[in-house]
Amino acid sequence: MSASKRVAVVGVGTMGSQAAWRLAARGAEVVGYDRFAPGHDRSAAGGETRIFRSAHFEDSRYVPLLKHADALWEQLQQETGRELRRLTGCLLMGPTGHQQMATVLESIAEHGLDHEVLDAEGLAKRFPQFRIEDGDAAVLDRHAGYIRPELTIQTAARHAEQLGARIHRYTTVREIVPVANGVEIRTDAGSEHFDTAVVTVGPWVNDLLPELPWEVDIRRLISAWYVPTADAWFGEERPAFIRTAPTHCYGLPSPDGVSVKLGLSRALHRPAGDPNQLDRTVQPEELEIFTDLIGRYMPDLSPDPVRLSVYMEGYTESSRPLVGPLPGAENVVLLAGFSGHGFKLAPAFGDIAADLALDGTSPRPIDFVSTIDRTEA
Ligand SMILES: Cc1cc2nc3c(=O)[nH]c(=O)nc-3n(C[C@H](O)[C@H](O)[C@H](O)COP(=O)(O)OP(=O)(O)OC[C@H]3O[C@@H](n4cnc5c(N)ncnc54)[C@H](O)[C@@H]3O)c2cc1C
C-alpha cells in the first residue's frame, strides 16, 4: 500500500465523505473539495432517512458488498460514538411472482439472511398500517432499517478531518486534468497536483466530465412526508418498507415519530435538467400518485403532505453504478450513477475507492459495477 499518496476527493457527499474517511484512515494525504459543505441537501442526500437493507432485490451480487458496508457502518459508529443507523427492519411487499420478490428470496437463500415471510393475516396483525392485495407476499428483512444521511456525511467528513484530511468547503472543482505522474485539480482559486483523484460528484457528473462514455441520467426525486391518523406506525416495531409493484414505492417512519416519508421509483421521476437549476417546487398534480398509493396501501396516513423536498440522483441504464478508472485517465477513480440505491453501500464504496486510489485494484467483488471494459452503462 502506498500510504503517502496525495489523493483528491472531488465531491464530499455520500460517497466522497466515506472515501475521505477510508483514505485518511490508511494514511493517505487527503484533500476534499465540495461545491457546498458536507451534509447539505442540494444533491442526492438529505431528508433525514435512507433505507438500509441486507436483502437486495435489484441483484444478489450486491449482498457481499452490503456485508462489507455493514461492518464499516458499525466501525464508523464505534469510532465516532454517533448513532448513524438504526435497525428497525424493512418490509418488502408485492406480488409473489414479481421479479424483485424472487431476487430478494434468492439473495436471502443464497446468503442465509435473517428474515421472516408473513402471510396476509400475519401482516395485518403485526403491521396493521399496511394493506396488501390478493397474491401479494410480504418479507421482513430483519437486518435492515434506516440511516441518517446528513449526520452520516458530516460524521464521516469530520472523522476524516480528525485523521488528517483537509476539506475545502464551498469550492467547486472546474476541471480535472490528467498530467504526467498524476492529476491536476482546478478550482477558481488555482490548481493543485495529486497522485490520484477520486471523483464522487453525484448529479454533477455530466457537468464535470462531459466526455463520459456512458449515459448517467440525472433525475429529480420528490420526498413527501405524511402524518398518520393511527398509532401503529410508531409502535414497538417500525420497519421501513418497499412496495415492488404495480407501483414501486418506499417509505420510512421518521425518526422523530411525527410523520412517514414516502418516495417513488425511478420510472416516475422527471429529468432534473441542469443540476444548478433544480426545480424545487412540487406541483399539486405531482402528488396525485402519492395520494393514490396512500388510499390503496396505507389508509391510515392523512393524504395532505406536511413536508415536501426535492433531490437529484444519477441513474445508469442498468442501474449498476460506475466504479473504477475513468477511460484514458488511470489516475482518476470514478464513482457515479448509484441509481437510487447507493446510500446503504456508501462505506463499502468509500473503502473500494480507497483501494483503487492507493493500490490500483480492489479485493472486493466489483466486476459487475466496474468501469473496466464496460461498454454499456
Ligand atoms: C430521494 C432519494 C431517496 C433515496 N433513498 C435511498 C435509500 O433509501 N437507500 C439507499 O441506499 N439509497 C437511497 N438513495 C440513493 C442515495 O442517496 C444515492 O445513491 C447517494 O446519495 C449518491 O451519492 P453520491 O456521492 O453519488 O452523490 P451526493 O451525495 O450527491 O454527493 C455529490 C457531492 O459532490 C458535490 N459536488 C458536485 N459537483 C462538484 C464539483 N464540481 N466540485 C466540488 N464538489 C462537487 C456535491 O455538492 C455533493 O456534495 C436515495 C436517493 C434519493 C435522491
TrEMBL record:
Its cofactor is FAD. The keyword Flavoprotein applies. Keywords: FAD, Flavoprotein, Oxidoreductase. It holds the Pfam family DAO. Residues 6-356 form the FAD dependent oxidoreductase domain. GO terms for molecular function: flavin adenine dinucleotide binding; sarcosine oxidase activity. This is N-methyl-L-tryptophan oxidase.
